[in-house]
Amino acid sequence: MKLFYHGHSVVKIETNGYTLLIDPFITGNELTDLVVEEQQPDYILLTHGHNDHVGDTVAIAKQSGAKVIAPNELAIYLGQQGLDTHGMNIGGSYTFDFGKLTYTKAFHSSSYTTEDGEIVYTGMPAGMIIEAEGKTVYHAGDTSLFSDMKLIGELYSIDVAFLPIGDNFTMGPEHAAIATSWIKPRIVVPVHYDTFPPIRQNPETFKERVEESDVRILNVGQSIEL
Ligand code: NI
Ligand code: MN
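The joint structure predicted for all components is written out below.
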């Protein structure tokens, strides 16, 4: 399994011969190294409906034929735009051909703002657990610190966790370090920072607070092989 960080919350996973793209926010993401036209994932996985997470999902799904997995109301909305979708909800698991996916709680909000400025309700925001090739990956999505992260740490032996540290819209470095102590991942990667002025953050602030886990501050395009 290979995990690539592409700026903001964008993570690409190669596992069991499939390519998964999580929260493909490329257009308007000045940090990313990805080009929309070059993306050919098999699956697009979405944590919630905010535009900085849904991103270029419609264009990428249409050009690649990727199946889009999303919280149910977001899946319905994207299905209405002609995409092949699979709706899920918090606490639910489903075994796909790439592996098993479980949606977890995230404490945040979720809506999509259209080009006309209309705000569409897109269900509950979520995080996700991906189990494949005997490895377990947690992408927290956008969230505050919440005590059920202890439960996630109890239920799963997590190899890699992607946690937001940007503050303002999500937890910041101090709370993300507490989250890490509860989730107990072998490796933790800080995400969702530096993209916009309100979420500028020095990831070293996070790293110096984490005691047990291996903190990997990934530059855009860098990867971890498990
Ligand atoms: Ni959000
Ligand atoms: Mn966000």
